[in-house]
Predict the structure.
Amino acid sequence: MRNVLNTLRVLEEVASRQPIGVGELARLLEMPKSSVQRALVTLSAAGWIRPNSGEITRWVMTTKALAVGGHASGDLGLRDAAVPIMEDLRRRTEETIHLTVPEDDKVVLIERLETPKPVRISMALGHALPLHASANGKAVLANSGSEIVSLLLVNELPRYTDTTITDPDQLLAELAAIRERGFAVNHGEWRSDVGSVAAAVMGGPEKPIASLSANIPMSRLTEEAEAAYGIAVSEAASSLSARLGYASGPAARTGC
Amino acid sequence: MRNVLNTLRVLEEVASRQPIGVGELARLLEMPKSSVQRALVTLSAAGWIRPNSGEITRWVMTTKALAVGGHASGDLGLRDAAVPIMEDLRRRTEETIHLTVPEDDKVVLIERLETPKPVRISMALGHALPLHASANGKAVLANSGSEIVSLLLVNELPRYTDTTITDPDQLLAELAAIRERGFAVNHGEWRSDVGSVAAAVMGGPEKPIASLSANIPMSRLTEEAEAAYGIAVSEAASSLSARLGYASGPAARTGC
DNA sequence: GCACAGTGTGCCATGTCATGGCACAGAATA
DNA sequence: TATTCTGTGCCATGACATGGCACACTGTGC
């Protein structure tokens, strides 16, 4: 299905560079103009893109991708179950709350509630965060099987800021500490001005299915706040795990 | 490009019914099983879907669609410009704020900020609302050219609740009233328990590019509240129009 | 135990239809 | 007017999507 793959490439390129025309796309994707043209017409017929208002020769996305992505991400009903709990968490913390799901070697933001405070952290839905340099990622990692962690450590850990953990042993120690205290903390390890406190949502033993976090500008993240947020976040995460049918706790009961 | 269209149909179907297997999809889409199978493998190779964790034979969406739809909807930068204004609007109203864009014969929700209050109205991003039965839709319609309105009136207006406006003359009168007072109101015309107050964001004369609304449970929507929200919403909408480069006002100045 | 109705997957001859080079039309330079 | 960008249209070639069919497997019921 080469044509389908090509057409999807065109779609993604349009999404990230809209509004854009045939020629530029062909150059960027190193594809023949005719092929790109056909792909565009097809995508338009399918309702995923449309000519930009005014100019007919450049294309923009419709909201189709949003509608498809919207009721699509994560396990069924995760978001519905999560939103009320996230509301509650925002009331308690008054900070921006993120819901992420693990995917491949990253976690992806699928829902957020913003803090009412003026200094905010804003990230687009669908944004991916590294496992080793985000509170959500580390919370997920700490609750995954050791083979997942080993797999991550095969390659070098990318550094993003001064505080990013890149040493494998240090990461293992950090994960142990997270398991110990029940929540993960990030001190500007990915973006130097962004801190966060996260806890994993479990779907079974060693099976994290999501993660909840409170995201705080580093300027507001004191030691006491950290502890308080940690408790709030881990309570919210267990309560979400429970609502999704997994009774969290030190010993997971296997069925029957 | 029949195969592309088919593959996209498969993708949409997976999105709305995940997790789902080959056979069921083939039946729903009335396509040969082999074709569906190939489409699924292709989509998986492109990273849009993946086998559901645990069972290999049923498929779920990845977050690709979300990422693509995320930085894709609406005119470039609309969302970035809108979010701070929406924040402000939420502070003033303490109600759920919606940002929608017109698309074909509907308006589509592309961003929202939730009220801190317990009784909320929740709608998925990407959700479409009718033009004649939502505050956002009516706000857009009232600021569009009359040919757009006529086009809508060619077909009968669907009724959703007791208060839905289905009479063309009544709708025209309503639109005139909206232009007069500067904002649109919806009294449970689409969902009987949901009210809202909206104002259009303009990109040029008779060229609405978006709409902002405060969404309020009917139980909370008093007359005084309505007037206050109306002012807040229309101020926010003009300020967003201005930020996007269109100086709103009674007389639009044409370039140069 | 066996038949049966479900799954999902693999194979392959047929001929449809995507390919991509090329030519053309129009716009915006110079 | 010549030039160089756009975007679009056409068409012979042959690659590859098609979809019927067979197979493997699982769970159910007699």
In short: Residues 1-3, 21-23, 33-34, 37, 56-57 of chain A lie near DNA strand D (CB under 10 Å from a C1'). Residues 83 and 182 of chain A are 21 Å apart (CA to CA). The first strand of chain A starts at residue 20 and ends at 21. Residues 73-243 of chain A form a domain with the Beta-Lactamase fold (CATH 3.30.450.40).
